[in-house]
């Protein structure tokens, strides 16, 4: 049985931008979008915002055994990336040499077609990141 694609993926505007949530009360940035700021709760004032497509790897791990549907992509890299506005997200890292996918490496977003049977949230949003060698 095929699961429905995430709502975000159906929205073309969001397909080619990292649209996250900014809290005007405390200044926090979240991705993916949130309905409630975990710091401010009811006092939070949330607004959608286009996030910077650049950041730095905080941690990374190579995946050798994939979820069903991604067998043809193994091995691949998953990384926790902190964007330049301090939002953190989990992403796949592509088009990068294995020894470059490590904490501290600069990365930038790339948008990729996803397969229709994709249903693992972190990958199904349509963005991936790649290392910018000598990145700034
Ligand atoms: Zn807040």
Characterise the protein shown here.
The protein is built from 3 helices and 8 strands, in the order ααβββββββαβ. Strand 5 and strand 6 (88-93) form a beta hairpin. 9% of the residues lie in helices and 35% in strands. It is globular, with a radius of gyration of 15 Å. It has one domain (7-131): OB fold (Dihydrolipoamide Acetyltransferase, E2P) (Beta Barrel). The strands form 2 sheets. A 5-stranded antiparallel beta sheet has the order 6-5-4-7-8. The chain has a 3-stranded antiparallel beta sheet with strand order 2-1-3, with no helix packed on it. The chain has 136 residues and is mainly beta. Zinc ion binds next to loops. Zinc ion (ZN) is lined by residues 23, 25-26, 28, 37, 39-40, 44.
């Amino acid at each position: 049985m095929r699961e429905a694609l995430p709502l975000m993926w159906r929205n073309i505007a969001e397909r080619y931008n990292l649209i996250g949530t900014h809290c005007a009360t405390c200044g926090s940035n979240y991705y993916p979008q949130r309905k409630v700021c975990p710091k401010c709760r009811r006092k939070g004032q949330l607004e959608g915002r286009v996030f910077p497509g650049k950041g730095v790897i905080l941690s990374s791990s190579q995946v050798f055994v994939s979820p069903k549907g991604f067998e043809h992509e193994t091995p691949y890299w998953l990384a926790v990336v902190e964007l330049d506005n301090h939002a953190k997200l989990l992403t796949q890292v592509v088009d990068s040499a294995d020894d470059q996918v490590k904490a501290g490496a600069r990365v930038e977003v790339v948008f990729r077609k996803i397969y229709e049977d994709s249903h693992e949230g972190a990958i199904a949003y349509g963005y991936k990141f790649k290392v910018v060698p000598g990145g700034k």
